[in-house]
Specification:
There is one protein chain. This protein has two domains: about 90 residues, Alpha-Beta Plaits (2-Layer Sandwich), CATH 3.30.70.100; about 140 residues, Oxidized Rhodanese, domain 1 (3-Layer(aba) Sandwich), CATH 3.40.250. It is of the alpha/beta class and about 260 residues long. The chain has eight helices and 14 strands. It is about 30% helix and about 25% strand. The longest helix has 14 residues. A five-stranded mixed β-sheet has the order 4-1-3-2-5. A four-stranded parallel β-sheet has the order 6-10-9-7. Strands 12-13-14 form a three-stranded antiparallel β-sheet. The protein starts with a strand and ends in a 7-residue tail after the last helix. Catalyzes oxygen-dependent 5-hydroxyuridine (ho5U) modification at position 34 in tRNAs. Its EC number is 1.14.-.-.
Length: about 260
């Protein structure tokens, strides 16, 4: 049976995130969902999987239910499918940050870069005065990235601020277009750069996953595969699952 997968996040003030953990865990368990959810004072982030009906009920509760009281009114949601359940269990964890950067000045609820729709992304990154920046970890970049993108060569997102301090200059890099898997790391990274005085910072709304979902392969500037943090390993255009068997045969997306 085909499993529906939902990747989601939103930066929002959740001072009661500790009290939300058990009700959310119980709600997900009651729907038979598996996956991982992170709760922090700054918001929510996760990927879960289950039946289509269960995923739809989950998304409705987050956005419109009593549990969060309307605070998740701008959820970034991305849906895909898997041939088998890609998670072994359900985890709802409390964290200091829903994506760890370690910079208190990087607060996406106060300031964030300019969102760019996936359909407008090609034009932005083709402009000669745009620095295209991949904010993901090195092993993710190695599996696939956009043409001409700069690889910061980091092992974890927490190292991005060191890369920015050493390699980026507000006076030289006047227009930066960044991207990541689903958009969440870019929100933190763009908030960080804006706090450091960078003037024009753009990021791909919905991340690579949204781009692969809506941009036809014939028009795509993406090369390779997009790593995802579950047992599917990687997704291609149309968010098609790329199984381990295909990877072992040497399948590499657009190559």
């Amino acid at each position: 049976m085909i499993t529906k997968v939902c990747a989601f996040y939103q930066f929002a003030a959740l001072p009661d995130h500790r009290e939300l953990r058990e009700p959310l865990r119980a709600f997900c368990a009651g729907l038979g969902l598996k996956g991982s959810v992170l709760l922090a004072q700054e918001g929510i982030n996760g990927t879960i999987a289950g039946t289509a009906e269960a995923i739809d009920a989950f998304a409705r509760e987050l956005a419109h239910g009593d549990m969060f009281g309307g605070r998740l009114d701008n959820l970034e949601l991305k849906f895909s499918t898997a041939e088998a359940m890609p998670f072994g269990r359900l985890k709802v964890r409390l964290k200091k940050e829903i994506v760890t950067l370690g910079d208190a000045a990087a607060d996406p609820t106060r300031q964030v870069g300019t969102y760019v729709d996936a359909r407008e992304w090609n034009a932005l990154i083709a402009a000669p005065d745009t620095l295209v920046l991949d904010t993901r970890n090195a092993f993710e970049v190695a599996m696939g990235t956009f043409e001409g993108a700069v690889d910061p060569d980091i092992k974890s997102f927490g190292q991005f601020k060191d890369f920015a301090a050493e390699r980026l200059d507000p006076a030289k890099h006047r227009r930066i277009a960044m991207f990541c898997t689903g958009g969440i790391r870019c929100e933190k990274a763009s908030a960080h750069l804006l706090a450091r005085g960078f003037a024009e910072v753009y990021h791909l709304k919905g991340g690579i996953l949204k781009y692969l979902e809506v941009v036809p392969e014939a028009q795509s500037r993406w090369r390779g595969e997009c790593f995802v943090f579950d047992e599917r390993v990687a997704l291609g255009h149309g968010l098609q699952e790329i199984g381990l068997r295909e990877r072992d045969k040497g399948h590499h997306g657009d190559e």
